[in-house]
Amino acid sequence: MTGTEQKSEFDVVVLGGGTGGYSVALRARGLGLEVALVERDVIGGTCLHRGCIPSKALLHAAEIMDSIEEGGRRWGISTKLKGVDSSTLAATRDDIVERNYKGLVEHLRHDGVELFHGTGRLTSPRTVAVVPADGAAGGGEVQLSARRGVVVATGSTPRSLPGLEPDGETIVTSDEATRAKRLPESVLIVGAGAIGLEFATLYRAFGAEVTVVEALDSPLPGEDPDISQEIGRALRRKGIALHLASQVADVERDGGGAVALVRGKEGEQRVKAQMVLVAVGRAPVADGIGLEELGVRRERGYVVPQDWGRLETNVPGVHVVGDLLPPPSLALAHASFAEGMLVAELLAGRAPAPIDYANVPRATYSLPEAASVGLSEPEARARGVDVVVNRLPLMAIAKGFIYGQGGMVKVVAERGGPVLGVHLVGPHVTELIAEGMLMTAWEALPSEVAEWIHPHPSLSEAVGETLLTLADRRLHQQSR
Questions:
Q1: Residues with Cβ < 8 Å from 177, sequence gap 6 or more?
Q2: Is the model's pTM score more than 0.90?
Q3: Which of residues 333, 358, 383 is at a domain's end?
Q4: Cα separation of 414 and 445, whole Å?
Q5: Same domain, 433 and 466
Q6: Mean pLDDT in runs of 10 for the chain (480 residues)?
Q7: 146 and 32 part of one domain
Q8: Owning domain of residue 205
Q9: Which residue among 358, 387, 419 closes a domain?
Q10: Would you name the residues annotated as active-site residues?
Q11: ∠ CA 400-220-67 to the nearest 5 degrees?
């Protein structure tokens, strides 16, 4: 705890110190509310310690490895790559996490958020009992009360599959993989969603033999089919074995790793790997925190808001943000930030606009990256929209050709109407998708976007060229 004589009454009590929870706390303090933040593990949650930040640190190092390989293969740059010092790699990753963590804790304390390190449990819609983690307060519970409301932001944990229960060594989840001290020589990844593909390309860049098994018939199955197809081609070019519409039927540990029986449309085959990474999504952490006793509505483990505009449950005064929310929430850190700020503003008496989840960008930081916002082509057609579509390979523009990694831009628009969806694959496209968000959220017409001038040469130019063609102002894109 932060002090020997802490307050017990606050305007807002937040249960969970991950991205959703601490964004509530910071925004509420910025609006003058008194805030208590309860966290049983470490402030920053999964994203900072076992997810977004350590994995992207490793992906940056993996991109450097890819660049070194490209330098010799494509540009004639003489290099002698001896390998990777796993201990230095891990130390740099951990230093990045630790610096972010210390900065976040200092930020919260500087802003006057009261931090409670312990396990919290709702005892009423306005009270939380905290069992201190460090044995403070005589080991007894600390009772916190909230004048305006309690916000539940306890996050999620990796899902597992029958027969693939993690042991932390041979069979692991992203929690262990992001903080591992060594790199595997071979890995079988179960799941071709964002987490699975990020690790697949990361490990491949470091020289591992990588096999990916996906139960559905495409990688990144939630994305537009053209994006899934393009990312699948990129994976295979890297030498990653991709088994779609397939399942891991059995896993046997053999001392040096595991042997998995993979069944799918290609028949049966056995895959041997030093490590098995289970990347089949995450489950909300909602048990044992008092929700059931209060009668808070839940479905499939998720906490369901009574009012999505307020993110308030069926129990007045109890709000929920982050990975506890079911779809249409996206279980993404940046969505959690927006949810946390929305709830904080509501509790401060403001009237923020509800979150438009269709216009929250989706980003996969694999090598190459994928990013999207708005409707896919099938989603738009399923709504009965008369759509027009334009696709532009990144290799069709100068900067894309310089990168030489393939990729594409796809824009979906209503005929005679606004842009409905923007979908990207390629290097650093997660840095480009914010422009797509402005198009879809503001319902911009292709002709309006075509007036925006993009720098040449740049990857953003591909987005501009795609919209120029849709606006019947084609420049470099060849007619089809």
A1: 55, 199, 277
A2: yes
A3: 358
A4: 9
A5: yes
A6: 68 98 98 98 97 98 95 91 92 98 98 97 97 72 97 97 94 97 97 98 97 98 97 97 96 91 93 97 97 97 97 98 97 97 98 96 98 98 98 96 96 98 98 98 97 97 97 88
A7: yes
A8: 171-280
A9: 358
A10: 456
A11: 35
